[in-house]
């Protein structure tokens, strides 16, 4: 298959791979906040797990994964800034780095000590 549909699949695959890294950054940040005794709403756990499953399965649209990751990020930013976490800016920079097209995956994984979620692309989108 050629044309716009094929190009759309390539773009979606690229974004989902970056979301795997973004998920890992968010999970590492959430863990660090908890280790430092910062109150993170329990409501973060299920969306984190859900987004990991969506990314690794590859059968969910980018928009749905993006919505979940965005909500998680907002909660973590709120928890970190409310608690006065000094390195919140570093986490935000890392989140920005991981979404760049030329993201240095190994470098970011080393920073957060957590591998990116590996995904299996399912372009046929079985109803999951």
String of helices and strands: HHHHH
SS field, number of helical segments: 5
Structural class label: mainly alpha
Summarize the amount of helix as a percent range. 55-70%
List segments where confidence is low: pLDDT < 50 over at least 5 consecutive residues: 124-128
Shape: globular
The largest β sheet comes out as: none
**Which percent range describes the beta-strand content?**
under 5%
How far apart the termini lie comes to: 24 Å
SSE topology sketch:
Layout: H1 4-35, H2 45-57, H3 62-82, H4 88-98, H5 105-112
Distinctive features:
128 residues, 5 helices, 66% helix, globular
Structure in words:
With 128 residues, the protein is mostly helical. Helix content is 66%, strand content 0%. The chain has helices spanning 4-35, 45-57, 62-82, 88-98, 105-112. The radius of gyration is 15 Å and the shape is globular. Mean pLDDT is 83; it is low at 124-128.
């Amino acid at each position: 298959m050629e044309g716009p549909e094929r190009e759309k699949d390539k773009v979606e695959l690229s974004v989902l791979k970056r979301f795997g890294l973004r998920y890992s950054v968010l999970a590492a940040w959430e863990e660090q906040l908890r280790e430092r005794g910062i109150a993170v709403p329990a409501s973060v756990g299920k969306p984190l797990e859900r987004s990991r499953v969506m990314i690794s399965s590859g059968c969910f649209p980018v928009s749905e994964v993006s919505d979940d990751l965005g909500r998680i990020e907002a909660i973590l930013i709120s928890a970190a800034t409310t608690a006065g976490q000094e390195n919140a800016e570093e986490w935000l920079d890392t989140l920005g780095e991981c979404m760049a097209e030329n993201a240095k995956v190994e470098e970011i994984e080393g920073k957060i000590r957590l591998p990116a979620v590996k995904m299996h692309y399912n372009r046929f989108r079985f109803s999951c």
